[in-house]
């Protein structure tokens, strides 16, 4: 009887152990399932994640963090968190870690805490970080999500540059309107002064009076030309776009310079190679070319050669008609080429140079959908290149 009782007890205990084993097995499988699910969530998190204990040791990371810092996950486990911080910040950072574990709390991103990360190759990047404490059997673990702010900073800097450029453009636009209004107001009394100067020139009795009257008339004409340039530069146009052969426009612009070519002993060479039709405002483009030709002649007061060439060129995949205006003049120093198109910039020291010819020409060409470029070599000459969309290739 005792034997049967003992056997029954053993079987009962075995059955209980079996049930306990099955429960443990179920718990283990559930734990593994939850752990796997947690790891999947961790690895799929969009941010780089790092888990750090109170000793500032890394206990867990995800793939995003390893990729961000250029390490493998295995290399990071057990490392001091300071290995991911630039050396100049490490002492302060260790203090922050100690203070955080003394008073654990949730801190979201965007808290204006400027931090920097250090990659394995030594490069640094600006970062934002959020912190959350979690309780574990080993104590508090700090969970940090880290975002690289490099691209965001670049975007912010670009937006700031655009805002500054927009503000500058608005100032220039306002200045342009004021300048245009002032120029219009000055033109009428200036015309009267010029008219009286010419009348005085006719009735002057002495050579001295004639010389003074002629000087006034010349200066008035110079100021009138300057005001015309200012208005041309600031005026908003509505171009009359029509199809024209670029060679015809060039011939018309060059015809007006015939006398000056003879006076300065400048020979003209035209090489109208492969060219075609452009859709532009004919009068505006002719004006731009005339200004460029005048600028080229100013560079050759003692004679030289003016060459005008046309051909075709593909620029950034776009077929264009190319016009080149070349002189054999004094050339432009390399350091001045970047500012050559600025208003009132001139490479000449004489009072003849108004400094707006190139600026107005550039303004016109770009309004017509063209591109203007300039290259120069001192004591050899300058080439101005105009590029217009090629309608024959469209």
Structure in a nutshell:
The protein is of the alpha+beta class and 394 residues long.
- Report how far the terminal alpha carbons are from each other: 110 Å
> Structural class per helix/strand content?
alpha+beta
Q: Any idea how many domains?
A: 3
Helical fraction: 40-55%
What would you say the CATH architecture of the largest domain is?
Answer: 2-Layer Sandwich
Mean pLDDT: 82
Query: How is the quaternary structure best described?
Result: single chain
Beta-strand content estimate? 15-25%
**Could you tell me the number of beta strands?**
12
CATH homology group of the largest domain: Histidine kinase-like ATPase, C-terminal domain
Major sheet attributes: 5 strands, antiparallel
Low-confidence stretches: 349-354
Output the helix-strand order. Answer: HEEHHHEEEHHEHHEEHEEHEE
* Cα shape: elongated
What is the overall number of helices?
A: 10
- In the CATH hierarchy, the third-tier topology of the largest domain is known as Heat Shock Protein 90
Q: Provide the spatial order of strands within the biggest beta sheet.
A: 2-1-5-4-3
Written description of the protein model:
With 394 residues, the chain is an alpha+beta fold. The chain has three domains: 2-149, Beta-Lactamase, CATH 3.30.450.20; 153-234, Helix Hairpins (Orthogonal Bundle), CATH 1.10.287; 242-393, Histidine kinase-like ATPase, C-terminal domain (Heat Shock Protein 90, 2-Layer Sandwich). Helices cover 49% and strands 23% of the residues. It has ten helices and twelve strands. It has helices spanning 2-44, 63-69, 73-76, 90-102, 150-203, 207-234, 246-255, 258-263, 282-298, 357-367; strands at residues 48-52, 58-61, 115-118, 124-136, 139-148, 242-245, 266-272, 277-280, 304-315, 318-327, 371-377, 381-389. The strands form three sheets. It has a five-stranded antiparallel sheet with strand order 2-1-5-4-3. It has a five-stranded mixed sheet with strand order 7-9-10-12-11. Strands 6-8 form a two-stranded antiparallel sheet. It is elongated. The termini are far apart. Residues 349-354 have low confidence and may be disordered.
């Amino acid at each position: 009887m005792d034997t049967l009782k003992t056997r029954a007890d053993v079987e009962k205990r075995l059955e209980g152990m079996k049930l306990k084993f099955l429960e443990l097995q179920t718990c283990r499988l559930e734990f593994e399932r939850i752990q796997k699910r947690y790891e999947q969530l961790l690895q799929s998190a969009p941010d780089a994640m790092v888990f750090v204990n109170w000793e500032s040791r890394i206990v867990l990371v995800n793939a995003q963090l390893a990729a961000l810092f250029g390490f493998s996950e295995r290399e990071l486990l057990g490392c001091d968190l300071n290995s991911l911080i630039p050396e100049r910040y490490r002492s302060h950072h260790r203090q922050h870690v100690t203070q955080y574990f003394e008073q654990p709390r949730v801190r979201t991103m965007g808290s204006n805490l400027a931090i920097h990360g250090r990659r394995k190759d030594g490069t640094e990047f600006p970062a934002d970080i959020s912190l959350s404490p979690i309780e574990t059997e080993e104590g508090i673990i700090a969970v940090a999500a880290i975002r690289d702010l490099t691209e965001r900073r670049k975007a912010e800097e670009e937006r700031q540059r655009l805002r500054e450029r927009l503000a500058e453009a608005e100032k220039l636009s306002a200045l342009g309107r004021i300048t245009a209004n002032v120029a219009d107001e000055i033109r009428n009394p200036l015309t009267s002064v010029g008219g009286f100067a010419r009348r005085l020139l006719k009735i002057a009795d002495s050579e001295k009076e004639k010389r003074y009257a002629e000087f006034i008339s010349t200066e008035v004409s110079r100021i009138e030309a300057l005001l015309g340039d200012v208005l041309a530069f600031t005026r908003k146009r509505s171009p009359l776009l029509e199809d024209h052969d670029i060679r015809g426009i060039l011939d018309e612009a060059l015809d007006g310079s015939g006398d000056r070519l003879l006076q300065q002993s400048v020979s003209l060479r035209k090489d109208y190679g492969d060219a075609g039709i452009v859709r532009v405002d004919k009068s505006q483009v002719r004006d731009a070319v005339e200004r460029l030709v005048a600028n080229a002649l100013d560079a050759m007061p003692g004679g030289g050669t003016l060459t005008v060439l046309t051909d075709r060129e593909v620029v950034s995949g776009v077929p264009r008609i190319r016009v080149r205006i070349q002189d054999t003049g004094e050339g432009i120093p390399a350091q001045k080429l970047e500012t050559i198109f600025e208003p009132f910039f001139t490479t000449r020291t004489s009072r003849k140079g108004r400094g707006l010819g190139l600026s107005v020409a550039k303004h016109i060409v770009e309004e017509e959908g063209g591109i203007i470029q300039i290259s120069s070599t001192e004591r050899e000459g300058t080439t101005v290149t105009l590029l217009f969309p090629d309608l024959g290739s469209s």
